[in-house]
């Protein structure tokens, strides 16, 4: 939901731009949609921030700043309950002394909605959503909080922060740590993997899962009793009788399983 936190979220950025003499280029759009529709964003550059409200509309605010702001073109398409946003950056004039641009997409969607997000350079944040999420960034972190629905997320260069997700989780990062918080017992399989960071999983006291936790370059530890095989770099077995699969795997860090 929109709140004071979101209202003032970008205030420091705005003040910085004013102080630096830069004027942001803004694009505001509103689309009438229906619940269970799809928002698709594909952009060459830009951070994406998704929030929800109890209305059947999609509100879009795109902010573009920097000396190359005119080289960024954002187009929109609305078809029935779906909204598509495309961001194209002309890199032909992207050279020394003229190489600054910053783009943010602040989008508010219905509480029941689906997302397909792809950015080549920016972070992704999603809160308070009921729907399927497919999100990818080539250069930023991904944060998901208070969600109901299956998620498939990937980043090539950032951390993952997953808090209170009810649904199937498939999460991968090539260069960052992962924090997973499951305050309720999962009903579907979860898999989180990183090639270059640690994994910390906070689980409910009564969690019941089939655990597979492995690392190639650190240690694995669990605050839960596991019925299975426990080694320095792997713990495989069941917690509280077993349940959905919980896979925690890293190639370059430790895996810690803690009780909430």
Identify the notable features of this structure and list them briefly:
12-stranded mixed sheet, disordered N terminus, 2 domains, mainly beta, 11-stranded mixed sheet, 2 helices, about 260 residues, 23 strands
Instruction: Tally the structural domains.
Output: 2
The coarse silhouette is: globular
Helix content: under 10%
Element-level helix/strand string: HHEEEEEEEEEEEEEEEEEEEEEEE
Query: Uncertain runs with pLDDT below 50, 5 residues or more?
Result: 1-21
Task: Characterize the structure shown.
- The protein is mainly beta and 260 residues long.
- The chain has two domains: 110 residues, no CATH class; 120 residues, no CATH class.
- The chain contains two helices and 23 strands.
- The strands form two sheets. The protein has a twelve-stranded mixed β-sheet with strand order 5-6-2-8-10-12-14-16-22-18-21-20, with no helix packed on it.
- The protein is globular.
- The N terminus is likely disordered.
């Amino acid at each position: 939901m929109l709140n004071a936190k979101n209202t003032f979220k970008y205030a420091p950025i705005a003040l910085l731009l004013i102080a630096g003499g830069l004027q942001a280029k803004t694009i505001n759009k509103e689309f009438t949609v229906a619940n269970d529709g799809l928002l698709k964003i594909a952009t060459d550059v830009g951070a994406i921030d998704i929030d929800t409200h109890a209305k059947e509309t999609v509100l879009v605010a795109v902010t573009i700043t920097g000396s190359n702001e005119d080289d960024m073109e954002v187009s929109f398409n609305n078809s029935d309950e779906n909204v598509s946003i495309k961001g194209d950056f002309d890199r032909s004039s992207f050279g020394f002394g003229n190489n600054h641009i910053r783009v943010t997409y602040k989008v508010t969607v219905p509480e029941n909605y689906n997302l397909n997000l792809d950015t080549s350079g920016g972070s992704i944040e999603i809160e308070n959503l009921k729907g399927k999420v497919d999100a990818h960034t080539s250069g930023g972190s991904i944060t998901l909080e208070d969600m109901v629905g299956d998620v498939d997320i990937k980043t090539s260069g950032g951390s993952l922060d997953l808090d209170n997700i009810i649904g199937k989780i498939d999460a991968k990062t090539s260069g960052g740590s992962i924090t997973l918080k499951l305050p309720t017992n999962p009903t579907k399989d979860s898999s989180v993997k990183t090639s270059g960071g640690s994994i910390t999983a906070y689980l409910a006291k009564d969690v019941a899962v089939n655990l597979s936790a492995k690392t190639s370059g650190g240690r694995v530890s669990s605050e839960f009793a596991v019925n299975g095989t426990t080694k320095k770099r792997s713990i495989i077995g069941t917690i509280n009788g077993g349940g959905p699969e919980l896979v925690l795997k890293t190639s370059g860090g430790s895996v810690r399983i803690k009780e909430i």
